[in-house]
Amino acid sequence: MNVSVAHYTAACVAGILNSFHLVIAFTTHPVGPRHAMKDTLNVLLSRLRMKQLQLLIALDDHTSLHKAAGAMSMTQSAASKALQELESMFEAPLFERSKSGMIPNQLGHCVIRYARLLATDLAALCGDVAEIRSGRGGRLAIGAIMGAIPECVVPALNDLHAGQPGLSIEVMEDTSARMLLQLDEGRLDLVIGRAAVAADPSKYHYQPLADEPLSVVVGFGHPPLPRKEVKLRDLAGHRWVMYPSHMPLHALLEREMDLAGLEMPDNPISTASTFVTVALLQRSADLVTLLPIAIATLFVKQKMLRFVPVKLKSPSQTFGIVTRKGGVLSPAAEQFIGLLRGGKERQQGAQWEKQGARKQKTA
Q1: Fewest C-beta in 10 Å: which of 171, 204, 320, 358?
Q2: CA–CA–CA angle 229, 278, 143 (5° rounding)
Q3: What is the pTM of this model?
Q4: Which CATH code is given to the segment(s) 214-313?
Q5: pLDDT digits over 208-243, tens only?
């Protein structure tokens, strides 16, 4: 067990240090030769201390050398010396000194981002090692978009936890954009979402999993609709529960309304909470909303919602497994990814069986 812990510790630290130093070297010498990058890396490996990185984080938080030194329990002169040493290593200033305080420049932002990542990963590493030493199974932090949870995330989580009941699992549901920021900071081990929404998708490993088809739904108390196919125009007398403007499903509804030649609803109820949405629809027969089919099906089966047969024109968006390039996945994260892939293969197999059965019936 001690050997396993040591190997995992070494792998985590090596992976984070490698990504940290390589990116900083490229930033310091964007067009320089390979030996310049190697020289920078050697300087960092021999001189960089965690205390200096903690000072950078404190400076970013407080924008004042005096306050940052206080937060670090250092004298201001010691903090100033540590910052000078850092800037000497990178051969460039990391902060702009102004009346409003010390503001990170482009290089400073880059170094601080990796300093936060390293600090978060080391904290997680300490937590994992403590869990293993205490006989428990470590920790796994997962981010997932709403539509991925019922059919992809939940089955894999159940299988993982059944096999490792001592494993501590944290699940976060949010937009892909927000969760990728958490992934960048090391707060999440992986995200089930979309890497394409990131400013730089190339910094992630992305493995497609499934599509996220959408549906229009009303409360179960809504009178059954007379026609087999309903158009958005037919829902003109309804009130809408909508996602906030920063969320992808809000933009998708805008696109559907535009394609239908309709204006967005005036004064809708806006919420990111599925629970609030379903509770509202159950209470009011004139409310309508857009939900991923996987989510809506859960409530339709419980006779809490009804599907409205609206044929949406926008194609279904694909989501997948997103991890950081250069990051080291824990054994639990690797096992979870394996379960997700296995679930995808089973779903594809079931779909092929259904298609084969349909062909036999029509033959």
Answers
A1: 358
A2: 105
A3: 0.65
A4: 3.40.190.290
A5: 999 999 999 999 999 887 777 899 999 988 999 999
